[in-house]
Design brief:
The protein is an alpha/beta fold. The chain has 27 helices and 18 strands. α5 runs antiparallel to α7. The longest helix has 34 residues. The structure holds FE(4)-NI(1)-S(5) cluster (NFS).
Length: 657
Amino acid sequence: MSYEYKFLNAEMPAREEVLEKTPNEISKELFRKLEAAGVETFLERFAGQQPMCRFGLMGACCQRCLWGPCRIDPLNPKRQRGICGADLDLVVAGNLLRSLAAGCAAHGTHALQVVETILSCTAGEDMPFSLKGEERVRELARRFAVEEGDLHKQARTLAGILLGSIKGGNNGILQVIEHYAPQEQLDRWKELGILPRSAMEEVFEALHLTTLGSCSDWKQLLKQEMRTALAYCYGALFPACLGQEMLFGIPETFSVPVEVNYGVLGKNTVNVLIHGHSPVLAECLVEAAKSLELQGLAYEAGAEKILLAGACCTGNALLSRHGVPPVANILALELVLATGAVDALVLDMQCAIPGLEHVARCFGVEIITTYDGNRFPRDRHIPFSPREARSQAREICLLAMENFKKRRDKDIFIPPGKTRALAGWGVESFFRAFGGVEKLGQYLAEGKIKGLVSIGGCNSPKLPYEYEHVTLAKELIRYGALVFTTGCASYALLNAGLASPEAADLAPGGLKEVCLKHGLAPVIPLGACTDNSRLVQIYSRVAAAAKKKTSQMPYCHSGPAPGSEKNIGQGLTFLLHGVSVHQGFPGGIPVPVHRPVENRRYHDELKLEMSNVARFFAEGAFKKLGARVYGEPYPNMAAKTIQMHLHRQRLALGWGG
Ligand code: NFS
C-alpha cells in the first residue's frame, strides 16, 4: 500500500511497502521488532501525517510573516497571491532561500567548531589535539601563500582565512573561492554577480530579503539563492573539510576492507555509537577507547572491549580516518537502538530526530549530548570543551560501561549481517589509486568509465528506506559509471556491499577492469556531507586534466531522498559548478516531474508546479551554468535519466556512447 499524490505524479510508501522494498534485511527485522514491542517510530508518525498538505509539498505555502499562512493556488483566481501580494514565484523562491539559509547555518556551525578548535589548539597551551594533518597544513600554506615556518603559526593563519569564509571581515573575493573554484565557474559567477561574502553574511542577507516587504522580485531572490549556495560551499563545506584534515589528517586508504552494517555490534562489547557532524570530540573518543586503562576497565566490567560505531556524518568521518564501522544513518538510528545493544549514543550536533529519545528510553540507551544547542529533554549533557576533551571522552566511555553492566543480562537482539567496504578515501588517496588524475580522465574518454556520479544526502520517509539509493547505484554501476557517495546515502550503499571489491562484478567490462586493476570498488565513500567539497575538487580536477569544462563532462550528482535543508545547498553547489543534479522525491529544489499525463485534472495540477522558479532549475539554469536539475522520484527511472544525461555529455564530447 502507498499514499497517492497525483498532483506530484508519485506516491509515498506506507509501512508494508517500506518493509517490502527496504534492501537491508536487518532493517526489516528491526522494524518488525519495534512494531512487536509497540514502540513508535517514524513509520507510525509518517502514517499519522497522511495526507500531506499539497501546498506545503509544492512550496506554495508561505508562513514567513504573521499575516499568513497564505496558500498560493494559480488555478484558483482568488488565491493567486498571498495577502501581501506575493505570487507563486515569490513564495517558492523565498521558501527555498530560507531553507538553504538554514542548511548553510548548520554546516557553517560545524565548520566554526572545527576552525575554533584549530585556533585553540595552536594557541600554545596544553591541548588534547595536536595537528595530525601537517601535510594538509603545509599544502594549504603553499596554496594560500602563507609565510613558511612554524606549523602552528601557519595553521593559525590558515584558520584565520577559513574563519573569514565563515564569519566575514574579508576584503573582496573569499580566498577559499579564489584558490579552489575552477576559472570557468569563477568567471560565470562574476558575470552573474553572485560572488558571495561569508556564509554568515549571506545567511543574514537571505533572512533579510525574505522578511515581509523586503524583496518583491523572485529573480532577485534566486540570485541571493545562488550567492548563498556559493557561501554554503566555500564558507561551510570547504572550511569544515579542510579544517578537519588539518586537525586530524588526510584520509589514507585502508589496506583491508572495513566491516560495516548493524551486525558489527557485539553482545559482549561496550557499544558506543558516535553520532553527529563535527567529529572533534569523536576523535578523542577513538583515542580513549584504545587506551589500556579503559580497555582494562571494560574487561573488568565483563566486556570483551569497547566498540565504537558511527552514525550519520561523524560516522562517515570516523570511517574515513579510523575505519570505525558506520552503523546508522538518520533513519536507522531508531532501528539500531532497538537492538538493545547500544550503551551510549553520543551526539555532537545535528540530525538526531526528537523521536529518538522515546526509543532510547524504551531500550535503556543513554543519550549523551555534547553541543550546547543540540539537546534532548532527558539527555545527559557533557558540554564539549577542547581543553577538557580528553577527560570528557574518558567520562563518556565510563558511562557507557555502567550502562553495559545494567544491560548485560537483558534481551539483546543483533540480527547477524555484515558487509565489507573499502574506505579511507580523500582527494589525494582517490587520485593516487589511479596513479594520477590524468589516468582517470583517460578512462572516461575511452569509455571504460562511462561517467562519474555522486549519490549523497539523507534518507526520507517519503521513500522506501534505502531502496532508492541502492537501486539507483546498482543501475548506474551496471551502466558503467563510477559512483561516489557521501552523507547518509553512503550507509545504504555500504550496507548493500556496493563499496566492497566484489561489487565490481556488477559492472560491465570496462569499469570492472578498472576496479580490479586499481583495487577499487565501484562505489567510493568520500565522507560526510561537508566532504562534498572533495567531490567539487575531484570533478574540477578531472575536467581540467581532460582539458574540458566541468559542465561538458559526463558527471551527475544525485540526492535520491532529500531530507534536511542541508540537501538544498548540496544540490545547488553542484549545479553552480556545472554538474547537473538529480533530485528524488519531493526535492527541496522546486523542479517539475515530467510524466505523461492521463487526464485533464492531472495535467492542470502538474502545471501548478511549474512556477518560473521550477522552470529555471529545469531549463534556465542550463543557459547560465551549463547544468540543470532533474526531478525523478523512482530510482529505475532516475537511473535512466542520469544515464541519458551522461550519454548526451559523452556524445557532445565525441567520446562515444
Ligand atoms: Ni547530510 Fe549529515 Fe544524514 Fe542528511 Fe543529516 S547526517 S550533513 S543532512 S541526515 S545526509
